[in-house]
Write a structure and sequence with these properties.
alpha+beta, 3-stranded antiparallel sheet, globular
Length: about 80
């Protein structure tokens, strides 16, 4: 679980919890492509929360920004993919 800064449709930014997998692969022609699989966003947990509450993607302004933030945070964290 990684905390990222996400721009919301109603304005402003929120820090949300993100979970997913970063995948780097090559196709048959040797072209490299990077993608994020199974990306899920969750509201930050409050004290006493026992489960995570998912964020509807309609509330997020730009999913490309979310993917870029998640990719850079995962890379900075040094996770293997």
């Amino acid at each position: 679980m990684i905390t990222i800064k996400v721009r919301m449709k109603r304005g402003g930014y929120l820090r949300l919890e993100a979970d997913g997998r970063c995948v780097s692969d090559r196709d048959g022609a040797g072209q490299r492509f990077d993608e994020i699989e199974d990306l899920e966003l969750y509201w930050p947990p409050k004290k006493g929360d026992r489960k995570l509450y998912p964020v509807r993607f309609e509330l997020v302004d730009d999913m490309r920004q979310v993917e870029e933030e998640f990719w850079s945070a995962t890379k900075a964290r040094g996770e293997q993919w």
